[in-house]
């Protein structure tokens, strides 16, 4: 008839203020702010003997959820911190050699000094990059030295040929003077003709 016949309370709830189970006729469930009530019929023959009503306190579940949430949050923060720490180390390990390589390229470009070499890790992809960059600098330095030597050799050859030409011109002028043979020069652009004194006297 909906009246309370008997109830059982957990030992841990003896000291807690728990509201009594409300009258619950029939079957079903009901959620409250801090509890859930589930009711089932107790059949007896063609009728029923009564209802079995269970009122469960959700405080423990809430506390477990809060603890689990705190653990998950703490684990996430720790994971994020570790990921940030390792990524910072990895980024430093990756970007520092690249920045040193860029600084080396800037120094070489500004000073035109191809004897400078880049420093970096000896292994891995960055090591291959630094090694290839230094090999390229070796080739450029060798070609620059060869070009410098060729330029010096060319300058020496031009100077030598200039001295030979000057000596030949002096010898020719001296031979013409001794032989008293005149010369003349014709400028094709202006049409001017210049006579030497010997030829002019003739």
Strand order of the largest sheet: 1-2-3
Oligomer: single chain
Largest beta-sheet details: 3 strands, antiparallel
- Overall structural class, as computed from helix and strand content, comes to alpha+beta
Radius of gyration: 53 Å
Gist of the model:
The chain is of the alpha+beta class.
Describe the structure.
The structure is a single chain. With 202 residues, this protein is an alpha+beta fold. Helix content is 56%, strand content 15%. The protein is built from 3 helices and 5 strands; from the N terminus they run E-E-E-H-H-E-E-H. It has helices spanning 59-111, 124-179, 197-201; strands spanning 28-31, 35-44, 47-57, 184-186, 193-195. A 3-stranded antiparallel sheet has the order 1-2-3. A hairpin with a 6-residue loop joins strand 4 (184-186) and strand 5 (193-195).
